[in-house]
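Database export, one record per block. Field names are fixed; values are copied verbatim from the stored entry.
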Amino acid sequence: MYAHMTNGTIDFLMKLTEKHPTIPFHFMSGTSKDVAYYEGVKKKYFQAGRSFEILVQLGEIQEQGYVVMNHIPVLDEGRPVFEDNFRKRKDEIHHQKGFQAFRLLKPLKGNTYVVFTQWDSANSYEQWKNSKEFQKAHTNIKPPAYFADRPFVNVYQMIEEE
């Protein structure tokens, strides 16, 4: 299974549903950019965008919610260790209050993975960040040696189609 996303203004992105009415797009608005996201086959419906292989999938993406995307550049030689770490820890999040969905997205081009989590609210996400489980999973304060660059985070609010 694959995931695809692109950026643009929300008005422009929502026109994608007119062009491709059978594709279940998810729209998100963030402080710096808006995103259209969908999962399915390898075929892309975006002229400019990013495509990923879904390595780990938990839950179903909801039409409402708070999305956090951690963008983590990983060196080629570090990919197996990085992916294995997430596969081992995948069950630590799904029982958290307010959790909706999780995806570990491996880039088809480039080296930046996306760790996608969806919550019912920003408050639920913050509660998870302050939990013992989060602290246990993130005990490494120093970035691992396999990081190619500094990770960064984008947050979004889901937008329902009108």
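Remark 1: The CA atoms of residues 26 and 154 lie 16 Å apart.
Remark 2: Residues 79-89 form the longest helix (11 residues).
End of record.
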